[in-house]
Amino acid sequence: MKTNFKKEERLLKVGVLGCGLINQAAHLIGSAKARNIYLQAICDVAEDLLRKMAAIYEPDSIYTDYEKMLADPEVEAVIIGIGDQFHVPCAKMAVEAGKHVFLEKPMGVSIEECEELRDMALSRNVMLQIGHMKRYDPGLQYAKQFKEEKMGEITTYKGWYCDSVGRYTLTDNVMPVIYSSEAMKKPAGNPKKVLDHYYLLGHGSHLFDTALYFMGPVRRVSARYVNRQSLHSWLIDCDFACGAIGTLDLTVAIAQQWHEGCEIYGTGGTIFAKTFNPWEFRSSIVECYDKETDVCSTPAAYDGQFYRRELEGFADSVLNHTPCTGATADDGMMVMRALIATYQSVHSGGAWINLEDVKGAL
Fold first, then answer.
1. Is the link from the previous residue into 253 a cis peptide, with omega within 30 of 0?
2. Which of 85, 79, 81, 82 is nearest to 109 (CA)?
3. Homologous superfamily assigned to 138-303+327-357
4. Strand 100-104 and strand 77-80: pairing?
5. pLDDT at 1
6. Phi, psi (rounded to 5 degrees) for 213
7. What is the DSSP-derived secondary structure letter of residue 84?
8. For residue 187, what pLDDT is reported?
9. Homologous superfamily of 12-133
10. What is the dihedral of CA 219, 224, 225, 228, to 10 degrees?
């Protein structure tokens, strides 16, 4: 029988929708470890997979019918980690049921559906947080505070996200055993087959959200793309609303170790961040150079379990009725606009695309 050793007086009772890879590797474990979350229910249409996860995590209830989980009065919030095409429809159902929602990235697949979901959540006064977990990387959090306090006027942002040809060898070694089922619900067609869409959504969303986290809104982008022998690469110029300029590199996959990070230049200092494959659960190593003191600082940043930390942040906001500390619906929509603008720019010969003009889907 499950015993609750958590010390919080008040725990947020959550229901997890989906027993696929991201929930197995991140959100079920994160819910079990979070200091302020109680795993109330798990739901999946694949009953064999559902029962296997229930045997491991011992929720109070299991459901093969999502509507029945939403009708459970004990479930206060829903963690949604399923196929991208299902994100918004299932999140809307949860909002309509009065449940708070933690929605795995990307927020959706079109601007219009994301706007509708945001407005619904606002009108019903429920929390909607998007799962951009790098905002809970303690190394990046330290760098963000340094930027705000020490760096003066920011001129330049450089970001890169380069997947590695050895990524799956590494993840097979460090991830838990991932279970599957023939009965799992999958989107129509095969979205992963269109790789310039799939890589932009899956990897580009991290690249843009990290830039957004540090720099604020992106005003416009201009992008180039090349694909040779399954090596996909985007180089993206961007102008930020704050007046800074930037360049972003998204490449899948390079013959090198995982290569991700950013550099930020300001009149008062410089930040360099090296970010690791997320499944290593290592905080980014950051070097923050303070021009005034001529000192470089690097935090220890021991806790690299960003998936648990983001769920704790979500629960804190719900329980304490405080603003979202992670990616908001507006942040999720900004990332979606940037991804669609990048795709549009590539297909218009590198033209500058203003994000405020972006509509439609990727």
1. yes
2. 85
3. Dihydrodipicolinate Reductase; domain 2 (3.30.360.10)
4. parallel
5. 46
6. -60, -45
7. G
8. 83
9. NAD(P)-binding Rossmann-like Domain (3.40.50.720)
10. -160
CA distance 238 to 236: 6
Residues of the chain below pLDDT 70: 1-5, 7-8
**What are the residue ranges of CATH 3.30.360.10 in the chain?**
138-303+327-357
> How many whole angstroms separate alpha carbon 186 and alpha carbon 46?
11
CA 44/CA 52 separation, integer angstroms: 11
Q: Where are any strands of DSSP class E within the chain?
A: 12-17, 37-43, 61-63, 77-80, 100-104, 128-131, 154-164, 218-228, 231-240, 245-254, 259-266, 269-275, 285-290, 295-297, 353-354
**SS3 state of residue 300:** coil
Rounded CA separation 63/43 (Å): 5
Closest CA to 206 of 140, 256, 254, 116: 140
* pLDDT for residue 7: 66
DSSP 106: S
Residue type for 171, please? Answer: T
Q: What pLDDT is attached to residue 5?
A: 63
Strand order in the sheet with 231-240: 295-297, 285-290, 269-275, 259-266, 154-164, 245-254, 231-240, 218-228, 353-354
**CA 1 centroid distance within chain:** 33
Burial of 167 (0-12, 13-18, 19+ CB in 10 A): middle
Residues 28-47 have pLDDT tens digits of 999 999 999 999 999 999 99
pLDDT at 191: 75
